[in-house]
Specification:
Elements lengths: L1 E6 L2 H13 L5 E3 L13 E2 L9 E2 H14 L3 E3 L2 E8 L5 E7 L5 E11 L3 E3 L7 H7 L3 E2 L2 H4 L7 E5 L3 H10 L5 E5 L9 H8 L4 E4 L2 E8 L5 E8 L5 E5 L2 E4 L3 E3 L31 E3 L11 H23 L1
Parallel strand pairs: 1-2, 1-8, 2-5, 8-19, 10-17, 11-12, 11-17, 12-13
Antiparallel strand pairs: 3-4, 6-7, 7-8, 9-18, 14-15, 15-16
Helix pairs in contact: 1-2, 1-7, 5-6
Cofactor: FAD
Catalytic activity: [thioredoxin]-dithiol + NADP(+) = [thioredoxin]-disulfide + NADPH + H(+)
EC number: 1.8.1.9
């Protein structure tokens, strides 16, 4: 019987592992299909405290894993959780399968911390994820990467509040921000939309969708090819950065409604002011529940909180 199983890695999962390992709980980490989470798809991370010169996303995640392992955390690589079951005795059964293979496995644990995160939505165009991983001009986080695009034109793809907000944020750095939307008006709230459209650096590109990323000789984005959604005509837009703002998908499909409450988008709901879910002994941390901040440092903070709550819960069981 495990004391703590942590589902997912990234800043939330690894921080939860560091804290619970230092509490001598010997946590077991199940990495999922993307060890290290979304930060492994970024290059320079300059906004995580403690690294004044910045650090590569994958390197940061390796360091966090090593720190967790130093204190006794154990990592099970290459497994993806398929189900979490609350047992009659109050413990949990966690079922998983190999990411590459057919083998299934299961563990028993007194507590579970869900840190499986959320995945940014992209367009599904050829070579898209290679551009994300190589830092070649495609990203889904303006707050993380906006400062790398000073005095160059960029675009934001989307039409909701996030798109309007990210476009406005990027005007601090970019020389021009094209806001590309499939329709002829934004879906964003009136105040957010007006704020973006009133900004002289933002130019809306209506009734358009990106159908191809145009690359320079070094494999970096130099522009996008657009298709008009009304007449089907094509055009090209010269720019150096593409920011995706078409939403995120929480990785919560393996969690039943009996176990956790979710919002309409699938994000796990927490007890207000805590990381606990509606099921005693089950906690969530990071982007699986965070629909507002979605930053590495806020995910790490929730990972810390979840580990502390799990430790207190276990102490109550023993008492």
């Amino acid at each position: 019987m495990e004391n703590v199983i942590i589902i997912g890695t990234g800043p939330a999962g690894y921080t939860a592992a560091i804290y619970s390992a230092r509490a001598d709980l010997s946590p077991l980490i199940l990495t999922g299909s993307q060890p290290g989470g979304q930060l492994t798809t970024t290059t320079d991370v300059e906004n995580f405290p403690g690294f004044p010169e910045g650090i590569m996303g994958p390197e940061l995640m390796v360091k966090m894993q090593q720190q967790a392992e130093r204190f006794g955390a154990r990592v099970e690589n290459g497994v993806e959780v398929t189900d979490v079951i609350k047992n009659d005795d109050g413990s949990f059964t966690v079922k998983a399968k190999q990411v590459f293979g057919t083998e299934t496995m299961e563990w028993q644990s007194k507590t579970v911390i869900i840190a499986s995160g959320a995945s940014a939505r992209y367009l599904g165009l050829p070579g898209e994820m290679d551009l994300v991983k190589s830092g070649a001009g495609l990203t889904a986080c303006a707050t993380c990467d906006g400062a790398f695009y000073r005095d160059v034109p960029v675009c934001v793809i989307g039409g909701g509040d996030s798109a309007a907000e990210e476009a406005t944020f990027l005007t601090k750095f970019a020389s021009k921000v094209y806001l590309i939307h499939r329709r002829e008006e934004l879906r964003a709230s009136k105040i957010m939309a007006q704020r973006a459209l009133d900004n002289p650096k933002i130019e809306p590109v209506w009734n358009s969708q990106v159908v191809e990323y145009l690359l320079d000789d070094n494999g970096r984005i130099r522009g996008v090819k657009l298709e008009n959604t009304v007449d089907g005509s094509h055009s090209e837009l010269e720019l150096e950065g593409v920011f995706m703002a078409i939403g995120h998908t929480p990785n919560s499909g393996f969690l039943s409604d009996e176990l956790v409450d979710k919002d309409e988008s699938g994000y796990v709901l927490q007890v207000p002011g805590r990381t606990a879910t509606k099921t005693p002994g089950l906690y969530s941390a990071g982007d699986i529940s965070d629909t507002v901040y979605r930053q590495g440092i806020t995910a790490a903070g929730q990972g810390c909180a979840a580990a502390l709550e799990a430790e207190h819960y276990l102490a109550g069981l023993e008492g």
